[in-house]
Write a structure and sequence with these properties.
Layout (H helix, E strand, L loop, with lengths): L1 H19 L3 H8 L3 H6 L3 H4 L7 H22 L1 H22 L10 H14 L4 E2 L7 E2 H18 L7 H19 L1 H29 L2
Antiparallel strand pairs: 1-2
Length: 214
């Protein structure tokens, strides 16, 4: 997972540079992605990926990035993992153009990470992640949980500053790759089994609580 770690270290380094520069707002507004910035400077398609608006934003991405990126890199190799990540991030930016005005600036690696989650949940569904829980959970459950939460967040408009639409763009890239490698039938089987388990766990907890007073 060497390249995954290098990508994460790059994002961390850029974050500290941004906030130690003395003018983080200028850096984010200049090198973040927006329709207006892209027309003027196409390189913002890339630079925006490694910018993060806050430490919480960075840490939330890094923790998922580590497990999803490591799993995909182990399965398909560093170059393919990098391609999935970048294509997912680029697609996220493109999706955002449809829903947001040309002056709205977006930053972060989230769309690329969603691409890794989409691919990872199909290619390495049983790989364990220790995020966001203390106990490990399978990557398939993490990926599907994030996807469902993203749908809910988009419909309910939970956080207006979060580009749920951009996340969808990345997720579609990752799922497309995962289905192309696993096959549609096998991929859907993984998704349905994971969803069934996710629904069964709280039901079993309620039953145990009712009968054993847990």
């Amino acid at each position: 997972m060497r390249v995954t770690l290098l990508l994460i270290l790059a994002a961390v380094a850029v974050f500290f540079y941004t906030f130690l520069s003395g003018s983080p707002g200028f850096v984010l507004d200049t090198y973040g992605f927006s329709g207006k910035n892209f027309v003027a400077n196409p390189y913002v398609m890339l630079t925006s990926i490694f910018l993060h608006a806050s430490l919480q934003h960075l840490l939330a991405n890094v923790l998922v990035w580590l497990f999803a990126g490591g799993a995909v890199e182990s399965e398909v190799g560093a170059l393919r993992m990098l391609a999935i990540f970048l294509l997912g991030a680029f697609m996220g930016n493109i999706f955002s153009l449809v829903f947001y005005g040309p002056d709205i600036v977006g930053v972060g690696a989230s769309a690329g990470i969603f691409a890794l989650l989409g691919a990872g949940m199909l290619l390495r569904p049983l790989d364990l992640s220790f995020y966001p829980l203390v106990i490990p959970i399978p990557l398939a459950m993490l990926g599907l949980g994030y996807a469902l939460y993203n749908v809910y967040g988009f419909v309910a408009n939970l956080e207006p500053n979060v580009s749920y639409v951009g996340h969808f763009g990345g997720l579609f890239v990752g799922l497309f790759y995962g289905f192309s490698k696993k096959g549609v039938a096998e991929g859907m089987k993984i998704i349905f089994i994971t969803l069934a388990v996710m629904l069964l766990i709280p039901l079993l907890w309620l039953v145990a609580k009712a009968y054993f007073g847990l």
